[in-house]
């Protein structure tokens, strides 16, 4: 509606033009505020995860150097039967101990790991005895953690990266970092694309920092250039890190199972007839008391059976029955390319294969998950993979530091730098506001810690907006 006497073709007022500009740029303003607050408040978690992740990336190389004596045999002569190696480890441990797993030497010159349960060690940790496969000499005695068999150095750094050595509660930090890393990266990518499209002469500066710039522009140039080169890797680390997390990881697993893309599980339960024993019962069934037993000779026998089925790589693990009525398990643990994680369950009494799982038969999402985890851990392509992860982690850590430096550089004398304009959704069209709310709810359901912290961000935004409006009203009344 035009005011009386006003020229309908007259240039619109400055406030009206500003409102229309805000309406057109609401999404960019939203990305800028999201990127700022998430980077500012979650940045410390991402920084710790990045630095500890950089350390973890190079631990396989450090581990092979630090534990060279335990991992390397004194002879490259042909290996004696696995039964003799297991017996040597049992005699060393004493007390009638029975291995819970054995990892034969993967190649000449490497040692065999015979792993025992030990109540004095933390959960998921075994006592690994390193045996020279040719001479049965005991080369070492170390705790080994989890399915990866991480030795003390790698386990310590892994626990630092995963939980800051704070147990289950500490895992919330890594989930928060992994969940928000992808969101911050996407918001930064959106801002970078917007600058690239608007820019005419400075597009090269967005791909590599302009050394002639100084102060805030120099920091911003480095932040933009480094960010665009690491954004794909940051999104990958975020996605794969989430699969290990406590809350979001469980949601992802449920979604995969719901669509039939879960990781196949090997069935180890035996039927009653098999559990009672048969003509090969002497190979290793159970004691009369029902407790698991493992005749050292059975390791060689079940290994031979597994080789004839599908377990034919050098890296493998043989596990005796975990309890009465369960099968032996022989599983490949070769995590570098090409992936070999086939597994078989074998009845120790009849030497019959009761179940098998082949990686070739994994659903697509299960394969992608396996490859993603192995790339994240740096095992897929060996040293090259580890160096790329190290550089990527350092780049992400550098972005956090640069972001804080930019925030500090913009501050007025003696004050904290102002955040990007708040209340951006007031300028958004109805469908834009609806889309943002739907996306926020969906992300919060899948990534619970993001949902909680996002609610905190919104609350902070509302409080800051209320304070700003109150300050403006007080100033106008004072005039």
Walk me through the topology.
Elements: H1 14-24, H2 26-57, H3 59-66, H4 68-71, H5 82-93, E1 101-103, E2 112-116, E3 125-131, E4 138-145, H6 152-163, H7 167-198, H8 215-244, H9 247-258, H10 272-276, H11 296-309, E5 316-319, E6 328-332, E7 343-346, E8 353-357, H12 364-377, H13 382-409, H14 430-446, H15 448-478
Antiparallel strand pairs: 1-2, 2-3, 3-4, 5-6, 6-7, 7-8
Helix pairs in contact: 2-6, 2-7, 2-13, 5-11, 7-8, 8-12, 8-13, 14-15
Keywords: Membrane, Transmembrane, Transmembrane helix
Protein name: Membrane protein
Transmembrane segments: 34-58, 177-198, 219-239, 387-407, 428-446, 452-469
Number of domains: 3
Euclidean distance between termini CA atoms:
32 Å
Give me the secondary-structure category. Answer: alpha+beta
Q: Order of strands side by side in the largest beta sheet?
A: 1-2-3-4
Number of H- or I-type helical stretches: 15
The major sheet is characterized as: 4 strands, antiparallel
Mean pLDDT: 85
What is the share of helical residues?
40-55%
As a percent range, the share of strand residues is 5-15%
Note the overall shape: elongated
Could you give the count of β-strands? 8
Helices and strands, in order, run as HHHHHEEEEHHHHHHEEEEHHHH
Pfam family, one: PepSY_TM
Protein name: Membrane protein
InterPro entries: PepSY-ass_TM
Keywords: Membrane, Transmembrane, Transmembrane helix
